[in-house]
From TrEMBL:
Keywords: DNA-binding, Transcription, Transcription regulation
Phylogenetic classification of the source organism: Bacteria, Bacillati, Actinomycetota, Actinomycetes, Geodermatophilales
GO MF annotation: an example: DNA binding
Family according to the record: Belongs to the AfsR/DnrI/RedD regulatory family.
All residue ranges annotated as the OmpR/PhoB-type domain in the record: 1-102
Iron found in the keyword field: no
A Pfam family hit: BTAD
Sequence segments annotated as region (Disordered): 1176-1199
Name the UniProt record assigns to this protein: AAA family ATPase
GO biological process: phosphorelay signal transduction system; regulation of DNA-templated transcription
InterPro entries per record: AAA_16, AfsR-DnrI-RedD_regulator, BTAD, OmpR/PhoB-type_DNA-bd, P-loop_NTPase, Sig_transdc_resp-reg_C-effctor, TPR-like_helical_dom_sf, WH-like_DNA-bd_sf
Biological source species: Geodermatophilus sabuli
SUPFAM superfamilies xref list: C-terminal effector domain of the bipartite response regulators (SSF46894), P-loop containing nucleoside triphosphate hydrolases (SSF52540), TPR-like (SSF48452)
PANTHER family, A to Z: TRANSCRIPTIONAL REGULATOR REDD, TRANSCRIPTIONAL REGULATOR REDD-RELATED
Length: 1199
């Protein structure tokens, strides 16, 4: 008989046909025999199993004979053309049972499965055809007449699941072909039919997104989350979570994929075998090897490996370590963890402490500039800084010192869980890595919030950064991994189920395969439903299932270890589990065999996700109580206070002060390390636990003062609470000054002024110096916040005494005199008094001593080495705000001198540090205004525009900084030719406080240029003349010279006298760019004879070229061409050294090496090396010459 014409159908009613003729299969029991044999797919089915399927537990006395009769009848009916008693070729005997022998397409179930297997490796268009054909075989519920039979139920469930998967695959293929909008109604119906199938929600959201309905896509994902939570009590799996992230950011990979032509057939070249956990990682491995090659050449790098949990970030980090070890490169490692997130410099200590165990080596590594990091590793040793900046700088130099013996790799796993102090240290190091042979490699789990999220994001934008984002595994890689692990040929349908269930996540796949291997599941098409049944929560479900199977003490010990976290000692784990140590050790061994913990010491889970699964399996309230007990056990075991405090942060708040002692001790340790943010975290928790009383008042004050270093806004709130509770007048006065000073930068405008006035009025008479300090803050904040003068401005007596308050008041009155612009001598005298002895540095992080220094700059009073001393003091004290202030105003100083590159560097650093410090954003408007000035002086209008746009996007700015920023924006508009808009901006600048002095209110210069651009020359001259008049009254030559130059330019042919006066005045100052501009303007006037003009223009071109003021250089060049003179730059245009370059030259000439010079000047070794390599041909002599000797050739000087 030709069996190829026989067809048996089980997907609906059980029927058979031969050719076009239907076949009678007999009664239900006889048909059941056939179905059981067909479902065995050619394997022999024992008689006992057939008997059980036909009669259940009530077989007849002669069951074997009755069964034989059924088989005989089936043979005849399935082979209608065969001779009687001929040997059957369809149902054959074998051993003690029977089997069917049929072609692959004879049974609709078999054909259905084969079509799905073919579709697993087909293109989207082919998949639509194949899966459509497969689904067309269904004529109703499978095996419907046996739906209540135990032998049929598993097969029915499997087939129904396969059909559901097939429908989803058909939709996915049609989505790939661009049919999104058409599929939405069908998908809504499919989701309604089975709302717990995550793949359907995923397809619906994707279809909505591709149909340009992003809001609806997000709504569908929210419905999915709610449904899963309500029905199953679980969160969405990784596929849905990743899709939600991609929809939110409109990821390009969500778009309809572009179909590329298939690669030509042919044998591929043989490749070396790849480790199981490095499949599909060729791109990442190439980047790692390139980074190590760069490191060997002395080039630093930052590698950030980003991705969701389980994507393989840690495995790549391990490969970095292995490849580095192959090259004999030293690797220092650290790992962040949720429990240790508050440990001050915890990750940094993991990196460096192993290198500091030998006393002699420790002393050498922590010498020089690295000495300020000693407190990080020994908080009880030496003086502790009042903030973390000194520690950051010291840690940078510790890393530099470690490179003396060769390149260095710093490998940090789970950066998202590192403490904030370590993260800032990492950022500080990375930004100063030029020419330091260090490779920093960090893994970052996406989707994990961090207090310093912006800092993490900024790291990825650093020039030395390379960001790697490992993708999920491809279907081919999954197939290969399944085969390697389960050791058999893998059905494409089974592999597809593994890929779809885990979304190609390597960790989820490993956990899934571990469970399948334990259950001895075969990787064939018949078992694809087993994979699908596991669902997408592979880690949690498989880990918890393994825990339940282990039984005994293992689950209890795992939960105790989950609470304690990695590194917990065995005795403490045993105590928390309530078990003997020997039983705990045996349980840990069982957990290691089940791949839940590592079989090593100290104790660690195989992956953070595994620990999280065990940890989250415990109810939140129970976890909190276990953390409380863990804290007691660790303290009894002698653990460090920070380790105990980490558990107290997660324990219930009792409100009885029991936890306060440990938390305060941990805070002191963190503060002594320079990790003020960690100290603040501990103290805030201690405050929650402490009842009212004197100790609470002390704690509020301690917390507020620490917060002033890292979180100005929070600082004022806690200091105000302490102030209200304090009774001692002197203590209240100290806190009042701290509050008011912090409010200037961290509170809304007006808060500092109002509080300072009220606090001063409440002071007893004997606290006169405190009153002067508060009065000074009231005056300065009124100016800085542009408040109504009626609120704060009133007669103020001159400073009295030599206290800090008197110096603060001197600075404030110097500021007032400068604003008025009538008495430069008085302003300078008061500013010098404020800075006398550098005493203000001890109590003021960067307000009054900065004001005094600004006044002296605006008065052209030489500051000498003030900024070098200020920087050294700020670094030594470790105050972030003091460093910020130094960078901001030293940047202003450099800009006024024409040191544009150094100004740019300082101001950019100030902006970074302002973001780190927080507060009300007083500093950024100043920095942005001065940066715009630098860009315009360089002639880079595009960069100035970009900075102006960035400033506009950061929100409104108030006070002096906001006013100066608006003036700078108006200058940009004038440079772009938008004169009317520039005047509009100037007119809109609020001026509640009159500022007559143009040195601090230079709007007239910009207005004059805009008016001239509009052809309103008479108005422009009047405005410029008024500015000159005011500046003659003030008397600072650099500002007067710049204003005279503008007036001369606006007056045209009649302004030559003003231009000559401007050049003469500016030649006596350090304002190099202003002098170059004045020389160019004068030399370009046709009224000036060649013998005067040509030397001026050449000197201008040389100076502008040296300073990077390319716009002025080109204008001077054009003016020379107009006079028919050579316009090339000659050897005479040696660039004058900057302040920094002169100091480098002086220290190098004194015999200091590159590192010693860098340490003294707070530079990186790369910066020093770059200066020395670019020194002129005559070496260091020209760099160390006084600025007047190197400014310009003699012919360019105007007497």
């Amino acid at each position: 008989m030709e069996t190829g014409q026989l067809r048996i159908s089980l997907l609906g009613a059980c029927t058979a046909s031969y050719g076009d003729a239907p076949l009678d299969l007999g009664g239900p029991r006889q048909r059941a025999v056939l179905v059981v044999l067909v479902l065995a797919r050619g394997e022999v089915v024992p008689v006992e199993r057939l008997t059980g399927a036909v009669w259940g537990d009530r077989p007849p006395a002669d069951a074997a004979g009755a069964l034989q009769a059924y088989v005989s009848h089936l043979r005849r009916r399935l082979e209608p053309g065969s001779a009687a008693r001929a040997r059957s070729s369809i149902i054959v005997s074998g051993g003690r049972g029977y089997a069917v022998r049929l072609p692959p397409d004879a049974v609709d179930v078999w054909r259905f499965e084969r079509l799905l297997e073919r579709a697993a490796t087909a293109s989207a268009a082919e998949t639509v055809q194949l899966v459509g054909e497969a689904l067309g075989l269904w004529r109703g519920p499978p095996l419907a007449e046996w739906s209540d039979e135990p032998w049929a139920e598993p097969e029915i469930a499997r087939l129904v699941e396969l059909r559901a998967v097939a429908r989803e695959r058909l939709v996915a293929a049609r989505l790939e072909l661009g049919e999104a909008a058409l599929l939405v109604p069908d998908l809504e119906t499919m989701v309604a039919d089975e709302p717990l199938r995550e793949e359907r929600w995923r397809l619906l959201a994707l279809a909505l997104y591709r149909a340009h309905r992003q809001a609806d896509a997000l709504g569908a994902l929210r419905r999915a989350r709610a449904t899963l939570a309500d029905e199953l009590g679980v969160d969405p799996g990784p596929a849905l979570r990743e899709l939600e992230r991609q929809v939110l950011v409109q990821a390009p990979e969500l778009d309809v994929p572009v179909r590329r032509p298939r690669a030509p057939d042919g044998p591929a070249p043989a490749a070396a075998p790849v480790a199981d956990d490095l499949l599909d990682r060729e791109h990442e491995l190439a980047a790692v090897r390139a980074a190590l090659d760069d490191l060997a050449a002395g080039e630093p790098r930052l590698l950030l490996i980003e991705g969701p949990a389980g994507i393989g970030k840690t495995r790549l980090l391990t490969e970095v370590r292995r490849l580095a070890a192959e090259r004999s490169v030293r690797v220092l490692t650290a790992r962040g963890s949720p429990l240790e997130k508050t440990f001050g410099f915890g990750a940094v200590r993991q990196l460096f402490e192993p290198q500091l165990t030998d006393p002699a080596r420790r002393a050498a590594l922590l010498a020089g500039a690295a000495a300020s990091a000693r407190g990080v590793f020994d908080p009880m040793g030496g003086d502790s800084p009042d903030g973390s900046f000194a520690a950051l700088h010291g840690l940078y130099w510790l890393a530099v010192n470690l490179t003396v013996d060769g390149p260095l790799v710093l490998a940090i796993d789970d950066v998202q869980w590192c403490d904030s102090a370590s993260l800032r240290s990492l950022a500080y190091l990375v930004r100063r890595l030029d020419a330091v042979p260090v490779l920093v490699v960090g893994t970052v789990r996406t989707g994990e919030p961090h207090e310093d999220e912006e800092l993490l994001a900024d790291l990825a934008l650093e020039p030395v950064a390379v960001v790697l984002r490992p993708a999920t595994l491809s279907p081919d890689a999954v197939t290969e991994l399944v085969g390697r692990r389960l050791g058999e040929p893998v059905s494409p349908l089974f592999a597809l189920a593994c890929h779809g269930t885990t979304s190609g996540n390597p960790l989820l796949l490993r956990q899934l395969l571990r469970g399948l291997e334990a259950d001895r599941v075969r990787p064939d098409a018949a078992h694809a439903d087993v994979v699908v049944a596991v669902g997408s929560r592979a880690v949690s479900s498989m880990v918890l299932m393994r825990l339940r199977r282990l039984g005994g003490a293992a689950p209890v010990v795992a939960r105790a270890a989950g609470v304690l976290g990695d590194g917990a000692p065995l005795p403490v784990v045993a105590a928390l589990a309530g078990l003997p140590e020997q039983e705990t050790a045996a349980a840990l061994a069982a957990l290691a065999r089940a791949e839940i913990v590592k079989d090593e010491q100290p104790l660690a889970f195989v992956h953070p996700l595994v620990r999280e699964s065990v940890y989250r399996d415990q109810p939140a309230a129970e976890r909190a109580l276990r953390h409380e007990r863990a804290a007691r056990l660790l303290r009894a075991a002698g653990a460090a206070d920070e380790q105990v405090a980490a558990h107290l942060l997660l324990a219930p708040v009792r409100g009885d002060g029991a936890a306060t002692e440990v938390l305060c001790s941990a805070a002191r340790t963190a503060a002594e390390r320079g990790a003020a943010d960690s100290a603040v975290t501990y103290l805030r928790r201690a405050l929650d636990d402490l009842p009212a009383g004197a100790q609470r008042c002390d704690l509020l004050r301690e917390l507020g003062l620490l917060e002033s270093l890292v979180d100005g806004a929070a600082s004022t709130g806690h200091l105000l609470q302490a102030y209200e509770r304090l009774e001692d007048p002197a203590e209240r006065a100290d806190v009042a000054v701290a509050i008011a000073r912090t409010q200037v930068f961290a509170s809304p405008p007006g808060a500092a002024t109002a509080f300072a006035r009220q606090a001063a009025e409440a002071l007893p008479g004997e606290l006169h110096d405190h009153r002067q300090a508060l009065l000074a803050i009231e005056l300065v904040s009124g100016y800085m916040h542009a408040l109504d003068p009626a609120v704060w401005r009133h007669p103020v007596p001159d400073p009295d005494g030599a206290g800090h308050g008197a110096q603060m008041l001197a600075a404030a009155l110097a500021y007032d005199a400068t604003i008025e612009g009538a008495d430069r001598e008085r302003a300078v005298r008061l500013a010098r008094s404020a800075l006398e002895g550098d005493r203000l540095w001890a109590v003021d992080h960067g307000l009054f001593w900065v004001i005094a220094a600004i006044i002296r700059m605006l008065a052209d009073d030489d500051l000498g080495d003030f900024w070098a001393r200020a920087r050294a003091e700020a670094h030594a004290r470790g105050s972030l705000f003091a460093v910020l202030s130094t960078n901001l105003w030293q940047g202003f100083w450099h800009w006024r001198r024409g040191d544009l590159a150094e100004a740019d560097s300082c101001l950019t650093n100030a902006l970074d540090e302002s973001r780190m410090w927080g507060g009300a954003g007083i500093a950024p408007p100043f920095a942005l205004a001065f940066l715009i000035g630098c860009h315009l002086d360089r002639g880079d209008v595009a960069a100035a525009r970009a900075t102006a746009d960035a400033a506009a996007g950061s929100g409104p700015a108030v006070g002096d900084g906001g006013r100066l920023l608006q003036h700078a924006i108006a200058r940009v508009l004038t440079a772009e030719g938008h004169h009317e808009r520039a005047l509009t901006v100037l007119d809109a600048v609020p001026a509640p406080v009159p500022v007559p002095n143009p040195v601090w209110n230079p709007w007239r210069s910009t207005a004059a240029l805009a008016l001239r651009g509009l052809g309103r020359t008479g108005e422009a001259i009047a405005v410029a003349e008024e500015e000159v008049r005011l500046l003659r009254r003030w008397g600072a030559p650099s500002h007067l010279g710049a204003s005279l130059r503008l007036l001369g330019e606006v007056r045209g042919a009649e302004g030559v006298a003003e231009l000559r006066e401007a050049v003469a005045l500016l030649a006596t100052t350090t304002a190099a760019v202003d002098l170059a501009r004045a020389r160019c303007t004068l030399g370009a006037r046709p009224e000036v004879p060649d013998d005067e003009a040509v030397p001026l223009l050449r000197a201008s071109m040389a100076e502008a070229h040296a300073r990077g003021a390319l716009g002025i250089r080109e204008r001077a060049r054009e003016a020379l061409r107009a006079r028919g003179c050579p316009d090339a730059l000659h050897g005479e245009t040696v660039r004058p050294p900057t302040v920094t370059e002169r100091r480098i030259a002086e220290l190098t000439a004194a015999g200091l090496g590159i590192r010693e010079v860098a340490q003294q000047l707070f530079l990186t070794p790369g910066m020093v090396r770059s200066v020395l390599e670019k020194a002129p041909a005559d070496g260091l002599k020209s760099l160390s010459s006084p600025p007047g000797e190197a400014r310009a050739p003699a012919t360019g000087r105007t007497p």
